[in-house]
Write a structure and sequence with these properties.
The structure holds 2 protein chains of 2 kinds. Chain A is an alpha/beta fold. Chain A is built from 12 helices and 12 strands. Chain B has one domain: Thiamin diphosphate (ThDP)-binding fold, Pyr/PP domains (Rossmann fold, 3-Layer(aba) Sandwich). In chain B, helix 5 links the parallel strand 2 and strand 3. The chains are: A alpha/beta, B alpha/beta.
Amino acid sequence: MRRQFSETVTSLAEHDDRVVMILGDVSVYLFNGFKEKHPDRFYNMGICENTLVSVGAGLAAQGFHPFVHTIAPFITERSLEQIKLDMCYNGFGGNIVSCGASFDYAWDGATHHCYTDLAILRLIPDVEVIQPGSRKELDTLLRTQYRNGKATYFRLSDHPHAIDMDVQFGKGVVMRNGSSRVTVVTAGPILGNVLGACEGMDVNLLYFHTIKPIDRDLIRQYRHTRILVVHDAFGLYEAVCEVPGVSASYHGLPDTFCSWYGTGDDIRKKLGLDVPSIRERIRKYGTKARVTHVF
Amino acid sequence: MGIAKSSGHGHVPTCFSVIEILYAIYGTMRHEPQKPGWEGRDIFVLSKGHASLALYCVLAHFGYFEKERLGTFGAFQSDFGCHADRHKIPGIEASTGSLGHGIGLATGMALGLKIGKSDRRVFTLIGDGESNEGSVWEAIMVAENLKLSNLTVMYDNNMSHSRGLQIRNPVSHFKGFGCEVAEVDGHDVDALKQELAKKAGTVRVIVANTIKGCGCKTLQDNHYEWHRKSPTEKEYVCLMEELDEATV
């Protein structure tokens, strides 16, 4: 997905001389093409995430469309105040693009994991929060959102799903509509596992690539059903629960650090986010008489 | 001082340490108060946002708005808060308050102007206490590495953190980061203007040695107590008498 990010932004920069790339010493080789074509708009600024965001905001103040890119926990959790104040409160919006969220860097341990980015950013006024699940989704959403003047967060993954679909910013996707009394809701790359888990089951399945603004109209259509949010991050469940009249449960992260190393798939299996575990969770959820919360 | 008294708000000692600096900056930079969005203007960012009352007074002095509007300072639904909101006040380029942000914003603005090959300049005022924040030094490193010769950083060296983490040798610190550094009496407007007019091949830092509460002995001797305090009517009279003795 990072390669797609580079290709799309390089393409945008050819037609828009207000596009500026700021890297936090990450994905540098991927952007060699951008650097060669637009050396005055490419900056590997260093490992200083607070300042990356502030500089991005300052560029936006001068009419540019900055892309600020580095590893998820450092650009979101460490730089939350710069995003909140310099970009959002000031109205100097730019594009914040992360990699390595959830457990893309599973082997690096909890210092490099990031589960809260979607959840904390969606609480800031006037911000857009996007978790594309595939290269195609990323390409579409980058092109439609990058120059709207708002702070827009794109959460990339090195493990996208392989499902081909057209997407539109702010619109959820009905993946399965079986008129079931159970609706599974998910977002981002884990859709691959969730879709596999739902195979042959009588459930509805909704998919979101835009966490904020969440597609409330779509969720509202399914609020008469029991909703199970399956997600390898925080933020989607909370967004779903804010829709009036919804009863939902969450299957995803525990209230603990996932400090087990290994691969992303290892962590997903440990958390019950592999295909068989999700399937079993949905099956049990479908047979329960009342809504329970997993937290 | 009168606004601080009537409103019950204001960081008076820090305002008195920077007032000449702000006056000198607005007396040096290119700007048109009647057209605050003029595209040829230089930019000033008050990174130490708690000195906003002093900035409001200077902006009013230069004609950005009527001084009478400052009478609502800090009041409910006033345009003039204790930290400035750029959406509400002409001449305010960035909403600041949380320390260590304005200098990064100013760095990005200067970079944008450099990319656009503009000759406009960016000025920012940071505090010595503010410089406890790591983000200040991140921004200095980035700005110097980018050789942002259109950025001037004014450092208000008012020794506000002598009881805490005081940076005791700011000149050598900034020189160590590669900046061109000058040191000046921060209450000498002519000397300030002379330094502000100079340009360098990289970021220029002016360490302005100032006194918190300058002009009022009571504030100078008790600046921690007065950091966020506004005077009563009786205290106001005493402070104004002290100010008269020192300045008139």
